[in-house]
Design brief:
2 helices
Length: 83
């Protein structure tokens, strides 16, 4: 009987851990969508101030944002790295 309780307790702990991870991920996803919208609106305003910039601007902006994102990911990874 003790062994069954141990398995049930272990399952509950694991279940709660995954629920917390799921909820945290959901909040992170919503925050990412809000940031995406804010960044998109800002970039549209920038593009609107420069007439006839066209599709080249889309690629240039995508490249700049990608570089910024990679640098941010590397920096955050180094800051949060635990050994």
């Amino acid at each position: 009987m003790s062994r069954a309780r141990h398995h049930i307790s272990s399952f509950k702990k694991e279940f709660n851990k995954h629920i917390i991870t799921f909820i945290t991920g959901a909040f992170a996803f919503v925050a990412a969508l809000l940031w995406r919208d804010a960044i998109q609106k800002s970039l549209v305003q920038i593009k609107d101030t420069i007439p006839n910039i066209g599709i080249l601007a889309d690629y240039l902006i995508a490249l700049v944002i990608t570089i910024i994102a990679v640098i941010a990911i590397v920096l955050i990874s180094k800051i949060l790295k635990t050994e």
